[in-house]
Amino acid sequence: MSLTMEKSLQNRERMIDAAKVEIVGPSAIHEFSLPLNVIGNTELAADEAYKNYYWVNGGVKEEVLQYEYPSRRYAAGVLFPIDAKIGDTVGNEVVLDNATEEKKPVERDAVVEEDSEEVPIQNDERLPSSLGVTCNISNDTKVLTVTFEGARYKSHMVIIKGKGNRKWWLRETVGSKVDLQMEDLLKKRVFKQRLPIFNKLNEEITSIHMELHIQCREVYGQHLTTVTVTNRSKIGKKESSQSDEVMLFQAGVILQTDKQGRFISYPKHYQRNLPMTADEANDELLYRNKINYAFGHGCSMTWDDTEVVREIQSTFIPTYETTSMTPDVEVIIDGKLEKINIKMIDLVNAKSFEQLKMILMPLIHGYRQWIEEREAEIPKLDAKLYNVAMCNLNLCKESLLRMENGLQHLNKKQVKDAFILANKAILLQQVNGKKTRTASINDTEITFDISYEDTVFKLDKLQTSTNSWRAFQIAFFLMSLDSIVNDESLEREIVDLIWFPTGGGKTEAYLGVAAFEMFYRRILNPKDAGVDVIMRYTLRLLTADQFQRSSRLMCAMEVIRREQPRYLGETPYSIGMWVGGSTSPNSYTVALEKLRGLKQGKRDSEFVVAKCPWCGCTLGKISNGKNTLIVGYKKVENRFVTFCPDTACDFSAEIPVYFIDEAIYKKKPTFLIGTVDKFVQLTWNPKARAIFGIDENGQQRVTPPNLIIQDELHLISGPLGTLAGLFETVIEELCTKMVKGKHIKPKIISATATIKEFGIQTKCLFGRNQAKLFPSPGLDIDDSFFAKVAVDENGEPLPGRKYAGIFTTNVGLLMAQVKVFSGVLQEGNQILMDERDPYWTLLSFYNSLRDLGAGINLCSMDIPTYMRSIQNREGYKENRFIKDPLELTSRMQSDEVTKTIDKLKVELTAKNQKQVLDVCLASNIIEVGVDIDRLSMMAVVGQPKTTAQYIQVTGRVGRRWMERPGLIFTVYSNRNSRDKSHFEHFIEYHQRLYAQVETTSVTPFSDASLDRALYAVIIAFLRQRFSRVMAMEPNVDEYIKIKKDESFRDFVKNLIARVKLVDEEQVKSFKSAFLKFDKLMQSAKFTCWKASDKDAQGMMYMSGDPIASKVYPNAIPMINSLRSVDATSLGKITMDISNVDATTTSIDDDLEDLLS
């Protein structure tokens, strides 16, 4: 039986219902439930007491709670008596839930993971007794109908033979309805009345006193109305359990207008003439059709998505389904609407420019037509949106023009050849090495479970391939060509930002451009072999995952190069991973030591290359019980070499993948992937100059990198972005080449799914005046031509990710997790085996490691216990036993992260149920780089710090939406006012999710940034760009000579220019800091750069080292990381460089002129 979307949608609703039953209630009445006789006291035999019961109330079957007080059973949708305190309720011990905090040490190599912001619960705090709604009602509405719905639970004595009396609770549906004249409400402004509550028999419940309160005011010609209901019942003086009898459960308010009226949207920003930034104005245009009709007070709101809304209602588990976006583009070809399908094999087989043009022109024509259609819509818009609409379409026209120019470049042989080869490489990368081939020992022979021919395909086998470019990918490829092939192109100065939803294919878009650049450079000069593309990330998990993908591309390019070495040169195409020592060994010595440990059986493989990128063959330890063999890694002349153990593979001699620093400096891989942090090594290690094509004498031997790719740009913000922006100055300088006497900067491409005010961020980070978003937004967020809402054959939107909000009122965040997790995990066991996989594994995200540690404890103890209680209560035949959860956090080793991800990829079958993960608890390490399309269910515990993080994290599930759409439970903390606000505005927030992304802050030339990292930047340039002498020591004579060197003077000029561009007020601070450095360099106090036991007269030591600061009092602290993780230390003046002897600190006239 195959899994279908229809079945998955049904199961997704079951999961939401399971959470609702545990949080709000009531429980379902099952087929096997028995009627309970409630006339008088009920007598039951001992064996009958544990069966499931209901009672009949006014002809309706109602829930019976056995052995649980209602206030303990349900955690939301409860209106407590007025002035009720936590200590007054029977279930108060549930409220005060405190799990043991985890005390494990934390290593933070990612964004700093902060502590929980939950405020401790006090026993005398009041519990919520009211709920409300604020909405906007049209001025033609005559009557507003207010309906209150809920339930009360009344106690009932049950006598269990042999065990005594027990108090059970009978649910009784109650409600009230009142019609109000809008004219009267507007006259009174504030309206208040008692709200009588009736049961199904229309009997008034006099023990419960409800009050209705309405405030109505006229705003912009409409009626802004707030309706609240309050439980003003009093808690009796008798036993505390009686307080449950005057509580209202499953409470809710429904508002309805008459047929003449309706609920309307709040006035938009532009309608209220409020000042807006360019980004805010753009959001107003793009989201103008996303309408918010109401928000809650102590609850959330929901309504039917119809053209005219006449009914809204409160809810305690709001849901919102985002639309799924499709990259498929349809254009009119020969009078027919056809889907653009640009197959890579067709581009590879094209023999001429005319053939390429024939394949690509329909896309360009279609985009032009779409722009013209959108222009025709502008007059229909509100006049206040005209300017921003015209601006957006002008940007679309610029993209169109760049695409056309790129297409014309293909008329040149060398460009065409590089384009065709890039398409060939991308195609081979997509089809090869996808299957994992497991090696095993058969006697003395190594065999493989999958043959080489079944996993590696050459071009002759791909003539019928259907692999295609998504329209935005090939469009971006075309529009990037001019900035790659034309050194003098103005587009080379533009930072191109690929902006596409998570999982949309951004990686393939920039990999295509990267492949073109690497082929084109070799075609121009086959001997110009060096690092050509630098791709940077911020999180090691992303780096490791993308490294595997990019490695396949480089293997494909190398196979192609071997076919035509005279055209593409004799130097192999290769890839390097330049990251910290926690992810990969930084020296051959360390790598070989790990290899020895692997051979001795001390540890599993810790090498980042765990399988051959080309054929998928696993590397590492294999055994048949008798013999154990290490395959894929070997020692060759004191070097560590990675190779494929299958002799049939093209890379059985060596895989051109390098992840050891020594190998990277020697091999100079064509494609270098690294973390942002790693580039601080430019300050510490002069060998890194090889990356930029500079030899040990400071001569430029080959062209420096031409292309810089910065993925997940939104993560380069805050303190990390600030220091990265400062360090970017030296990286750009080292990547700048001289062509015909002109300085040619590298092309910069970035990508993200979540960003705001990108122009400011890219200016601060890269010092470029222009940044362009692609695809350029049009007039509506649901249609940018290259991405639009996916619809079915009837034009209805297809399912997307569904968000469900959980906000409890009388239990804390820990117990909320127990209830939700237990409910959905147990419900997963009730789904048919063939349909279980999408919602079997729960991926849970935490904002802090402290909260995650508490979650681990819950999954080990509380949740299994609660799941058993659900089984008993609901009468399920079998209980689900969950295994200990795994975690994905920054404190894990890289190989542990990889293993956990591999386990998450295992799909559930009837045979492997015990091997499939039940729960995985994760921190922000999953924000990017986790692409596991089987996952469809997630919990987010507490609202993340930023909306960008929320989008990125929840984008990890529901990627295979055509079969298994995603479900996200956002479990809010009732101790956090920000969480409560997000809950009350749940639909409003989620329908404009991307518009809610916060502006990032990057201040590379602030005083704090200059104090912390300017010296590191200048030293990096001195050690990487100039002679061996300067690389090894801060030699005064050499420094004085370098100051007159044109390249150094250009570097200083460019620094000043960038400070002026980003923050002109900081120019004075920059010059002052630079002069202090100049004095320090000429003080002649240092004999080497790094202070050590061998030479205590070193100039610098790693900041955060408290011992070094005492041992080397004359040295200065220098950053070794771009993150704010340095140890706290006391300040101490070790050297006053402002009072250094004037004879050694005089500033030459040239430098003084330069700084002035």
From TrEMBL:
Tree of life domain: Bacteria
Keywords (A to Z) from UniProt: ATP-binding, Helicase, Hydrolase, Nucleotide-binding
SUPFAM superfamilies (alphabetical): P-loop containing nucleoside triphosphate hydrolases
PROSITE patterns reported in the protein's UniProt record: HELICASE_CTER
Entry annotated with the keyword Nucleotide-binding: yes
SMART domains tied to this protein: HELICc (SM00490)
Domain Helicase C-terminal: 827-1011
Gene Ontology annotations of biological process type: interstrand cross-link repair; nucleotide-excision repair
Record-level Gene Ontology MF annotations: 3'-5' DNA helicase activity
Name of protein: DNA helicase
Organism: Lysinibacillus alkalisoli
